[in-house]
Every structure is written in structure tokens, then in C-alpha cells.
Amino acid sequence: MKRxxxxxxxxxAIAAAAPATASTFVAMSHEQLVAASAAVVQGRVxxxxxxxxxxxxxxxxxxMVQVEEVIVGAAPSVAVVRTAGGKVQGFTVEAxxxxxxxxxxxxxxxxxxxxxAQVTGYRLGHYRxxxxxxxxxxxxxxxxxxxxxLTADGSPAPRPRVMRLDxxxxxxxxxxxxxxx
Length: 181
Hints:
Blueprint: H1 3-17, E1 24-26, H2 30-35, E2 39-52, E3 59-73, E4 78-84, E5 86-88, E6 91-93, E7 106-111, E8 126-131, E9 137-141, E10 148-150, E11 163-164, H3 165-178
Parallel strand pairs: 1-10
Antiparallel strand pairs: 2-3, 2-7, 3-4, 5-6, 7-8, 8-9, 9-11
């Protein structure tokens, strides 16, 4: 093989091995998420429905979430939440960084006002509730690994971490108590 072919193959192999960043978002603290949200709720996903937007250019998914607890703010007993992405008749739109919902999943959501509502901060405002090995309920961030978080000045931001569910709810209530609306 010619030298330029080897160099081309080598560059192709390096490019294929390099991690691709799916999306980049400005990080938001819990305090910023609370300030930008009309409500923070704990609930269970009871139904999802994906469909094309009226323009026919994007698939979106609406999830019905049975609210178990309103942590702060006001929310209906069943919140309808819309997000980008989903599957319709063999077509799939993957919207990296946007929340994804599964029926039966227990969640904590930071919600913007609206009907349907949207999750504040994309996946930064979406936690899955799970049990740790010791029987405690924990809030698990749903942000994918390939999503890059930056601070407002463009430097890398720390990723959200798993925490006890009660700790997250206490932090949210404390932040809400300091916010003047």
C-alpha cells in the first residue's frame, strides 16, 4: 500500500476511536433548577406517547406522570411532560441530553410551567429513583455519558451525582425557601 493510504487509514481509525460528544449543555445547579421551575415533583410514569409535531419535522414524546409528592411549587395530580425524541412507525429521533421516559419509572422532575410541561434543564432536571444496596431510595441523574457540561464561562462543569432521595428533596426545599418569587 502507498504511504498516503496508510496515513489515511490511521487517521480514520483514530477518528473512529475518539469519543463523540452528542450534545453540550450549560450546567445548572439545583438552586438554578429550582429558580427556573414552577414545580419539583416526585412521581411515576404511567403512560408515554410519541408522535410527529404538526410540522412533521420532529418526533416528540409526552409522558403522563402520576405525581406522588409535590416537593415545591404547584402541580396537578397527573403531569403531562413533553420532550424531544421518540419512535413513531419505524422512525426514531434520538435527542441526546433530553429526558426519556419509561412506563413504571419513578422520577423526580424539575418542571417548567405549561401544559404540557417541559423538564427544566433537559436531563439535568430529571432524576430516576432507585434503591441502593442498603435499602435507601436514591436519586440517580439521567444525563448520558456523552453529553458535555460546561460552566457559563465555557470550562468543564462537574456532572450530577447519585444522592439519597431525601437529601435531594431537602436541598430542593431549602433552595425554594431562599427564592423570592
